[in-house]
Amino acid sequence: MTAVNDRTDSGADLTNEEIFAAHEGGKLGVEVSAPLASARDLSIAYTPGVAQVSRAIAADPELVDRYTWTQRLVAVVSDGTAVLGLGDIGPRASLPVMEGKSALFKTFAGLDSIPLVLDTTDVDEIVETLVRLRPSFGAVNLEDISAPRCFELERRVSEALDCPVMHDDQHGTAVVALAALSNAAKVVGRELGSMRVVISGAGAAGVACAKILHTAGVGEITMLDSRGVIHSGREGLTPIKQELAEFTNASGITGGPAEALRGADVVIGVSVGQLPEELVATMADDAIVFALSNPDPEIHPDVARRHAAVVATGRSDFPNQINNVLAFPGIFKGALDVGARKITDGMKVAAAEAIAAVAADDLSADYIVPSPLDPRVAPEVSAAVAKAARAEGVAKA
After folding, report:
1. Is 331 a member of any domain?
2. Are residues 390 and 291 located together in one domain of the fold?
3. DSSP string spanning 11-42?
4. In terms of pTM, does the model score above 0.90?
5. How many DSSP H helices and E strands does the chain contain?
6. Catalytic residue positions?
7. How far apart are CA 385 and CA 381, in angstroms?
8. Does 126 lie in the same domain as 216?
9. What pLDDT, on a 0 to 100 scale, did the predictor assign at position 295?
10. What pLDDT is recorded for position 149?
11. Of 142, 163, 184, which closes a domain?
């Protein structure tokens, strides 16, 4: 089957009238799956028939997965503090984005989901809220929560709940970046283990990218934040950055972007900081540039191509879009299909490998990941994630 590789419309010609009309009344609704056309239907779906099902679940709580939608329901949870490129806009203004996320879950993985926007930024309160709501859903997609709180929140929610939990801004980006880098390395004839990768940005996505690339065996990782290269001798490191310093920068590079990029094989931009052309020009031959800030990449793709063999962005109007929708629908579907208690690093790497494999037969400099609209992606990712969950012993089925 030939892969889909369409360059899509950037959306530049959209009108406000068209956008607001599409959102009027929201983008979601509830679809009834049981017939309700007769008095008998009512008696089965509601009273008195439903009482039998409720009694059965009361006697055996595990039956809830079979006789309700809980095991197929993802809670999309946000406090509205880091929404797209809009920043801290609050829970109400974040709701259209969360509805969109739920629509993607349904469209690409057939999973029901419900947006939950919380009017608090207190980690304790968010954790307690989700613990109390746990009987109502089967998984949690944390979304658009500011760093560094997002790291603690994901850890604590994962520890508190016996179900899959993932902060997509971290791990969705990281999974697709790993898939893209694996294929880009093949295009330029390199092995991941021989590469030095610079990650520009040490926020949610940057930290997750560093961790998954380290797990995947990338040769060396150099992290950049607004103060320069992260290294163990630098003063004032946060606990997260101190952790990064322990497994990155094996060469002991100090300084800023100029020192980090000189001779580097790959740069992954996940921040608002710019990547000047003169610094990209100092990278190694056949360099790889992922400029993922959206809508304004750290360096324009056409400029990056003057010096790099492979270029990717977060935008839909250039080749090689690093889009989280390639990852999160299939990851959650695979986890829920086997009743996984959590989403492990191995499951994320398996998802990346599955995404990369979909594009493997048609690789080129302009095609290192499949289109988000490629119908093969979510099924392949979910199957790989389910297999990894069983292998790691976190699956019920």
Report:
1. no
2. yes
3. STT--HHHHHHHHTT-S--PPP-S--SSHHHH
4. yes
5. 16, 10
6. 46, 101
7. 6
8. no
9. 82
10. 95
11. 163
Are 223 and 237 in contact by the 8 Å Cβ rule? The answer is no
Q: What are the tokens at 188?
A: 């330029």
- 10-residue mean pLDDT series, the chain (397 residues): 41 83 91 93 95 97 94 96 90 96 96 97 98 97 95 97 96 98 98 97 96 96 96 94 96 96 98 93 98 92 97 94 97 97 97 98 97 96 98 94
Q: Which of these three, 163, 192, 209, is where a domain ends?
A: 163
**What is the reported pLDDT for 8?**
43
pLDDT at 246: 96
Tokens of 31: 């679809």
Q: Do 112 and 186 share a domain, yes or no?
A: no
Residue 32 lies in a domain: no
Extract the tokens encoding 374: 């490629």
The total number of structural domains in the chain stands at 2
| Statement to judge: residues 176 and 155 lie in one domain | no
The Cα–Cα gap between 255 and 305 comes to 26
Burial (Cβ within 10 Å: 0-12, 13-18, ≥19) of residue 372: buried
